[in-house]
Design goal:
Radius of gyration: 21 Å
Shape: globular
Strand order of the largest sheet: 1-2-3-4-9-10-11-14
Number of strands: 14
Distance between the termini: 47 Å
Strand content: 15-25%
Order of helices and strands: EHEHEHEHHEEEEEHEHEEEHEHH
């Protein structure tokens, strides 16, 4: 499949010369730093720092129970003190795991990163993964995504189970916690029950950023109800725009704020071959092709900048989540080439304006659902 034609015919309305009267919309960029199995934390620190140098909003680290490897959440907890601004978003599988522990682990990442944590919600669907735990057989995909939504729900409640000023730490009186500001969540889901409160104080962001890949239809309800950021795999801007409209319509039905969630197009990038000439007679943006993991871009950094500019300029997406085919090579070319060009065109910022991932993404810090009106958030 190919990207829709970009308006190269008009020099006043092209990726190189965006129209001056076009409304300014923030462009969000994220990158995956997995893909090459490594047991050396320095490898992930290097890639995260490289992405941070390009002022990317966040990095993700894939994880699954289907293959051996390090735990993504633990790895990014190691990366956290070695970075300063970049958001850190590990894949966290909600199937076969305890929701209470999931919420505590993600909250801990938010604390050790000083408010830069998120989590990419995923499910385990295969019998082989179920046998690793031996607790229950593999479930159906719709049921697993319903459970994932309930995990996201109870995680938010547990994060709110401590009000922001619940910790007193008064050594003279021996009072360390105001127990009136701790709350039972008393959650009953289809497959689990959690009473609470959490064992971890409320995270710096209130709620770490929730990310969901909503390419498959079964995950879209969970994304619409709970996700701050949604990843979609689409081969054309109009296809991505349709998914974005559907997600935001569903989110509005659940009473969520306009513009929620942020929608990023997920794209695997191979920047090893450099720029490629357009086919004779075809004036279009660089093409994307279908791959095993979704749309795949192969070309050079300049053409990729044009693709990003075109898709974002049409309002199809809020940004891109880019997975390098070769992590170090492609991430370097992304930061030094594509991102630098987008910054030169004033389409992407040159530095992180805030300290938390929510600030990067222009997301408000959620109010605490258990705090009294007018109290702490």
């Amino acid at each position: 499949m190919s990207a829709t034609p970009s308006p190269h015919n008009s020099p006043h309305n092209s990726p190189h010369n965006p129209p001056h009267n076009a409304p300014h919309r923030p462009l969000y960029l994220a990158a995956e730093i997995g893909g090459q199995r490594s047991y050396d934390a320095a490898w992930y620190v290097e890639l995260a720092r490289l992405a941070e140098r390009g002022a990317l909003d966040f990095v993700t680290l894939q994880d699954t129970f289907a293959r051996p490897g390090l735990d993504a959440l633990a790895v990014l907890s190691r990366v956290a003190p070695a970075t300063e601004r970049i958001g850190l978003v590990p894949t966290v599988t909600t199937t076969h795991t305890e929701p209470f522990h999931v919420s505590a682990a993600v909250a801990t990442l938010d604390w050790v990163s000083r408010g830069r944590a998120g989590w990419l919600v995923d499910v385990s669907t295969t019998p082989a993964e179920a046998r690793l735990f031996g607790r229950r057989p593999a479930g159906t995909v719709p049921a697993l995504w319903q459970e994932a939504g309930e995990v996201a729900d109870v995680a938010a409640r547990l994060w709110d189970s401590w009000e922001d000023d619940a910790e007193i730490r008064d050594i003279s009186t021996g009072r360390f916690i105001d127990r009136d500001k701790l709350h039972y969540v008393d959650f009953e889901g289809a497959t689990f029950t959690v009473r609470g409160p959490s064992i971890v104080p409320r995270p710096p962001q209130g709620h770490p950023v929730t990310v969901v890949d909503a390419t498959e239809g079964h995950s879209r309800e969970t994304a619409a109800r709970h996700a701050d950021v949604v990843l979609v795999r689409a081969g054309r801007p109009d296809e991505a725009a349709a998914i974005r409209e559907e997600l935001r319509s569903r989110a509005a039905d659940h009473g969520r704020a306009p513009g929620t969630p942020r929608v990023l197009a997920a794209l695997t990038i191979d920047l090893g071959d450099g720029e490629r000439p357009l086919e004779p007679g075809l004036e279009s943006a660089p093409r994307t092709t279908a791959g095993d993991t979704g749309p795949h871009y192969r070309g050079g950094p300049v053409d990729l900048a044009d693709l990003i500019t075109t898709w974002h300029g049409t309002g199809a997406v809020d940004g891109f989540h880019l997975t390098p085919a070769e992590p170090r090579r492609d991430l370097e070319r992304l930061v030094n080439g594509t991102v630098a060009l987008l910054q030169h065109r004033s389409l992407f910022r040159a530095f992180h304006p805030g300290g938390t991932l929510r600030e990067h993404l222009n997301l408000a810090r959620p109010a605490n659902q258990y705090a009294p009106a007018g109290g702490t958030s």
